[in-house]
Amino acid sequence: MKRNIISNCAGVVLFLLAGLAGFNATAKEGEKGPLKVTISYFSLDNKLPYLTVNAKSKIDGKFQPVGGATIKLYLDKDSTGKGLGLIATVVTGEKGKATADIPASLEKIWKASSSHTFIAVTDKTKDYDETNTELSIAKARITIDTADDKNVVAMVSEFKDNQWVPVKGIDVKMGIKRLGGDLQIGEEQSYTTDSLGKVKGEFKKLGMPGDKTGNIILVAKVEDNDTYGNLRIEKSEPWGVKFTANDDFFQRALWGSQFHSPFWLVFMAYSIVIGVWGTILYLVFLIIKIKKLGKEEERLG
Amino acid sequence: MENSISINNDKKAANAPTFANGRRKPDALTDEQIISDLLPRKFGKLGMIWMGILVVICMVGVFAYFRQLKYGLVVTNMRDYASWGIYISNFVFFVAISLVGSLITAVLRLTGVHWSTPLTRIAEIIAVSAITFAAIIIIVDMGRPERFYNLFLFGRLQSPIIWDVTVITTYFFISLLLLYIPLLPDMKILLATKEKTKFYKLYRFMGSFWKGTHLQFRISKKAINILCIAIVPVAFSIHTVTSWLFATTYRPGWDSTNFGPYFISGAFLVGSGAVTVAMYVFRKYYNLKNYITYEHFDKMGKVTVMLALLYMYFNVNEFLVPAFKMKKPEEGFLDSLFIGSFAPLFWSAILGGMIIPIIVLLFKKGRHPFPMFIVGIMIVVGAWFKRYLIVTPTLLHPFLPMHNVPESYKHYFPSWEEWAIAMGSLAGALLVITIFARIFPIIPIQETLIEQHEKEHHK
User: Fold this and answer.
1) Which residues of chain B have a CB within 8 Å of the CB of A277?
2) Are A254 and B158 inside 8 Å of each other by CB?
3) Which end of chain B is more exposed for a tag (fewer CB within 10 A), N or C?
4) Would you state the pLDDT for residue A80?
5) Which residues of A touch B210 (CB under 8 A)?
6) CATH of the structural domain A140-237, one choice from 2.60.40, 1.10.150, 3.30.1380, 3.40.50
7) Which residues of chain A are modeled with pLDDT < 70?
8) What is the CATH number of domain B10-458?
9) Which ipTM score applies to this complex?
């Protein structure tokens, strides 16, 4: 019996503690966690690369984008290096993202080394403490080639000792560029480079609509690689079906444009309009007739 | 007999039978008495106050519209979802009420009903003023009214909006003709009796050519008959097309094949309610007890009860069938009407605008002037809110749920500018009717004289 009372009391105390913990948790609602900044490196068609930064914070227990955050981006040296290597100062948008190209003024620094470190710095604000985030990448490039048998070959190389060296074991995705994203060229989702840094995939999406001349855009890309970042290359090939614009829009239909109504509708609508407005005009004619009769009557006295 | 608007002798007046309260029996009225009773009169103190109130409401509406033009539609509370607010409700209401012209004038005339003669002009002026303000309120609803002409330049024949513009214009002209042609014979009387009034020039301009010849009467009768036939399909078209503005849009509550007859039956009901209210007001303040009698109220009451039952039948179809199926996308919309935020308004409109009028009008005492007046007001007010309920709840319950939108997009309550403009338009319509009644006879004098003579002839 005594044990029961003790266990019941313990239960009540635990319940109250849980309640207090819950209350405490509730009280924390609306509080913001520290600002978290991530940097992504992109290289498109092996040209001068660009960076995107993403700012987010844990608000109400889940990560949410932080808009309006001012972020300074540096190449290799941060602000303590007296401002040398400043890429840009960006402000994040509604979705917490901002993009910056590496300016031409940093070309020398960029070319001087085969690997670089990007630094993102935010100052202390009333909501967040200052942050410092770094991303190191090694310079790499991706190339794409095609063969008549509709095979696609991509090659990943790293810039090492002043030359491009093939890289083995990198995951490469190959696809076709479409409006909503990239469609894979075959059944494989990704391919891994061999000792020559190459991957080969068979183009199986025959009958894919292309542009007016049948061109489609082939894509080879490395995504979120810890060493090389994001690399992407595109190549146009006439492997698609020629696209012929559908000119239904200018045909006579209910969804047609102005003056392209179906004939039956034109006939019906105009018949009704002419019928009714003809009657109205006839009535106006009758009023004129009444008026004339009146004037005649007046003239005759 | 037709061309004789002769002022009758005094002998008949002397021998005229009277009611117990001393009021003359209508059959006993002399021509002189009829003309004197039905001629337009100057406003009394009450009339001036009424006019003043209407003008003030209109001016507030004009000021609110000026603000809307200056700042844009942002002064309204219409947003991305509720993009049709009380302006469009008001438009549908005006279109509905305008149908009364075709009911009272055309349908009853074509079916050989003569008791409606004193009510025809009331019905027609209600129709003309309502359709005028229906057209105005559509332009008010436009954010850029100066671009209205683009509708004519680039309008597509396939669009119900083009049909609506066409049919509203057509109905306006037909209603105007139906108001004007029967007014011609009265012009001669007005010219003969109102020589020294400020409206004399207007009467001369409008009808000095009417000499009351046999041929003129014959042509006018023919024109009225043609108009009565023509106005019925046009009136049906105008409200059917208005209903199609909704029914051809795929949304909960509007996706209905029932909408055409549902709108038309509702329009006839609100029109008869409006005529009843106008009948009572003109009878009381113009002292027309000899012309708008208990019999007229009794018969209008019976017509109204029939129309209310018809409208209720279509309401049952409109709400019971979807509620029985309760399809998921329509559930939110129906719940908001039956038990949700719109429920008080919805049930008030059903009870006040249909069920209570039916119950009251089923009793003979309920068809007396004052109860009819109250019922008429209930029908008109109920009908206005019913149009609001047709437009707004549907817009606030789209098929795709509202995500990532400001809170204000999820609700709609008109801003003061919207209320002011809507009330201003209603006051404007009443002002047109009031001014018309000040200038022209609100009961057709010539037709009343002819009917009087015919009655005597049959005796």
Assistant:
1) 170
2) yes
3) C
4) 58
5) 290, 294
6) 2.60.40
7) 1-31, 78-84
8) 1.20.1630.10
9) 0.87
